[in-house]
Write a structure and sequence with these properties.
Blueprint lengths: L13 E6 L3 E7 L2 H6 L7 E3 L2 H10 L4 E4 L2 H11 L4 E4 L6 H12 L2 E3 L11 E7 L5 E6 L13 H5 L1 E7 L6 H16 L3 E5 L3 H18 L2 E5 H8 L4 H11 L2 E5 L5 E5 L2 E5 L13 H14 L4 H16 L10 H7 L7
Parallel strand pairs: 1-5, 1-9, 2-7, 3-8, 5-6, 9-10, 10-11, 11-12
Antiparallel strand pairs: 2-4, 7-8, 12-13, 13-14
Helix pairs in contact: 3-10, 7-8, 8-9, 10-11
Length: 342
């Protein structure tokens, strides 16, 4: 990774600025048999076209709709912690786009990307959740994958301590170019660039390209264990973790109930998962972990302190339906005696 500005950056207006797929989530309970009948691999994230999305939506059980998108969920979590966040993502000038815009701004997130007009509708992710709380996602990206370099606001990125890039947005070529432009803007301002690998299927499609981008443009990588192993095509967790840690400044790897492993140079921290009474829906667990962890890094906390905030946020979100916090993460952190700033 090459950083183009070696002078000390000025104080940031935002803790985190995220770039991602702006979509609305539709969550519903299902059985394993339903997934089989629909030809869906349990636990997968697949891309579907508008017709396939409509057919699956009609077959799904009654559920709930909530503004989502992985990085959108993360900055909503940052806002719930009392942090300052901004978001760059593309919605259409339609009803769902208005819903998404209202919801993310209501979460305290700055969002001013111009809406797409005369094209595809706002993206949506159909999430079927089995009784074991595993989520299977079918995503129609719509307007979300129309994000281009022209939508990258260098001023907002330069005024953010950390730029956070959503791996799901790595699929469309124009959005990949937007990632490069965003990373360049962040480094020109002396800021850090983080990316989440998002999904092992994304990693499988773009392994070489992701590795090249990580090496050239990224300071911080967040991944779950499956994504990490897919990135290096191995079953050896320790070997894969060591390889990732050698590529970037900070690597954070989540391991579900086993917590997370965080590395920075020779420093390695294992953070326990926060206790959860009952796991209801794992949608958004990684997104909310990222919210706490990135806020902690932006505020100068130690790796252990940042990881603890991530675990707290993940535990809150998996205890209910939906990918965004329903309880103030700031209040939960204060009640747990966790630091929110150095």
């Amino acid at each position: 990774m090459t950083q183009t500005n070696t002078s000390a950056p000025t104080a940031a207006r935002f803790d985190v600025c995220a770039v991602g797929n702006a979509i609305v989530d539709v969550l519903a309970p299902c059985t394993p048999e339903f997934l089989s009948a629909q030809g869906l691999a349990p636990g997968s994230m697949s891309l579907v076209d508008e017709a396939q999305s409509a057919t699956l939506y009609d077959a799904m059980a009654a559920g709930v709709e909530a503004s989502g998108g992985s990085a959108g969920n993360t900055v909503a979590g940052v806002g719930s912690f009392g942090g300052r966040a901004a978001y760059l993502g593309k919605v259409a000038d339609d009803t769902l786009g208005q819903v998404f815009t209202h919801d993310i701004r209501a979460a305290g997130v700055a969002f001013d990307t111009p809406a797409l007009t005369g094209g595809a509708g706002t993206g949506r992710c159909l999430i079927n959740v089995t009784p074991d709380a595993q989520r299977t996602m079918s995503t129609f990206l719509g307007a979300a994958n129309q994000l281009t370099v022209a939508d990258i606001d260098a001023a907002v990125i330069g005024d953010s301590a950390i730029l956070y890039l959503e791996g799901y947005l790595f699929d469309p070529t124009p959005a990949r170019a937007a990632f490069v432009a965003a990373a360049e803007a962040a480094h020109a301002a002396g800021r850090k660039v983080a990316i989440t690998l998002s999904d092992s299927f994304v990693v499988g499609r773009w392994r070489a390209e992701l590795l090249a981008f990580i090496k050239a443009s990224t300071d911080i990588v967040l991944a779950n264990e499956d994504e990490l192993l897919a990135l290096f095509e191995t079953d050896d967790f320790e070997a894969a973790a060591a390889r990732l840690g050698a590529l970037v400044e900070v690597a954070a790897i989540t391991r579900s109930a086993d917590g997370s492993v965080i590395m920075r140079g020779d420093e390695r921290v294992v953070v326990k998962a926060a206790p959860v009474g009952k796991v209801v829906d794992t949608t958004g667990a990684g997104d909310q972990y990222a919210a706490g962890f990135l806020l902690g890094l932006a505020r100068g906390l130690t790796l252990a302190e940042a990881g603890a905030l991530g675990s707290l946020a993940a535990a809150e979100v998996i205890a209910h339906w939906g990918p965004r916090p329903m309880t103030s993460l700031e209040r939960l952190a204060v009640a747990a005696g966790l630091k929110l700033t150095a």
